[in-house]
Hints:
CATH class of the largest domain: Alpha Beta
Number of strands: 13
Number of domains: 2
Largest sheet: 8 strands, antiparallel
Order of helices and strands: EHEHEHEHEHHEEHEEHHEEHEEH
Radius of gyration: 22 Å
Distance between the termini: 39 Å
CATH architecture of the largest domain: 3-Layer(aba) Sandwich
Structural class: alpha/beta
Helix content: 40-55%
CATH topology of the largest domain: Chemotaxis protein chec
Strand content: 15-25%
Amino acid sequence: MASILVIDDSSFTRGRIRDALKAGGYEILEADDGNKGLKMATTQFPDCILLDIIIPGLDGLKVLKSLREQNSNIPVVVITADIQESTYKQCLDLGAVAVINKPLKEDELARAIEGILKYKNPPSLTDKQFDTLKELINIGVGRAAGVLNEMTHSHVTLEVPYIKILSPSDLRNEMAGLTRDKIAAVQLNFKGPFSGVASLVFPPNSASMLVSVLTDEERWTSDMNLLKTGTLSEVGNIVINGVMGSICNVLKEHISFSMPTYMEDTVDNLLKIGFASIGSTALLAQTRFKIKKLQIEGDIILLFEVGSFDSLLAAIDTIAGGTA
């Protein structure tokens, strides 16, 4: 039985939460101030924490900060009446997986908790599913390399040394080593039988090197920022569409894409954009661009909305079963 720790000084709100979650058969733990709640979190290890911000003792933000400093992996959902965007961002920066506004909508809360607990750990793939998925990505990357060759008149080789299926928290840990500074990323949304956000992410040095090689601009000028944005957006669009197009063609599915968006931000902030929905599943594929004897690394990140990755695996099973 999963346990939910509710940290809120309002008995009314705690009652609403109990009503919302009773159908799920959860064990409900309660604390009416931040000090008690933090102690219960670190001694009873609940599966999820529902946390108010304005509470006696340690306020909610301090509870979040303390849990983060202790490297807690317990997912925390902040429930607050504060609707300011700055508060929302601050909660996410401190490690909350979601923010839900008061007054509570019982069905919204129940879905959120179900999504968190169901997708707390990444799904396990069979060997056939993993091999098929890796092959689809390799095919897509190969097609993208062909387009880049024609576009740049340079020999561009793209490789995918490995792919991983990760939970949101594991992806953050995996990407944390990139840099503390801003990284370059091209993102676009995809929607259809499986939906989410696709990104091509570069560390700063790799991004600048890739632009210089593809444009033959070795000296950084005042126009290079625009050139960098345009070049990386085009490369990201080609690589992402190559990968997603390959998947959809083989699986005989159709998805639609948004326009690509280029941004420079920290890893944490870029990942929060992709994890707007609770319970996402991440596919991380490290990509190596080999151009003119240089090796430039980037990362393809596909963030699938709740349930979407299951839909992708079901489609893979259909194809793999049909070709076995």
